């Protein structure tokens, strides 16, 4: 026997209408709609980008105009003082001479008598295209051998009598390379050199010229030139005798080095090598090393060691001379 609930359930199911089946959608039409929507979105994005670029351009132009107006209205700090009044530009640095004069003296009396005086003066002037320099040096020394009390004093003997003058002019082709001419005259009676006059022309190269923050400097220059010299000889000591004159000529190599150990201590070295190719083979080498210790802004103590070598000196003379001196130098 069928129960009442089962009959009611069957009746309700029979009375419920069937669900409607949705109509099929055309896939091609949907794809076209999506493509159209994407194209429209791309067009709107491109238009927005164009408007943004135009706005950026207008902002940039406005900033430029504003900066120009501010620069016109604001005072120039480089040409105005704290009170706003215009300050004249600094005058160009004048081309002045820098000069140094050094003097050394040794004086001994008593059992022996010795006096030695040496001096050195240098001057330099730099401009944009030219460098002028001058250098003069000289020394004189006289000595008397010791004698016993009651005996006649031995005669004084000249142990040093020389002088030199050098003039140089450099024309700068670049800050590092220059062409130069040089003239030099010197005499040394002890070495039987009555007068030696020389001239040369060459090229100088500045490898570095550094000025450090602590005030010290470092400098290196090399020279390469053709040089000619005429040397007249005369023997002054021990007897006066005329000697034949000689000539020198050939390439000369030079070096000038300066290094600041500190701002008050500097080492300077000058080297010259001249192999003569005329009237026989002859070699001249000069090296001067100097240690400068600055005591004040203008006063310094200079210790100088000089070596001079001549492979063919005057007859009876030694090829090598050395000297060590201490002098006070004043810079102007």
From TrEMBL:
Domain of life: Bacteria
InterPro entries: DUF481
Chain positions covered by the region annotation Disordered: 18-37
UniProt name for this protein: Salt-induced outer membrane protein
Lineage: Bacteria, Pseudomonadati, Myxococcota, Myxococcia, Myxococcales
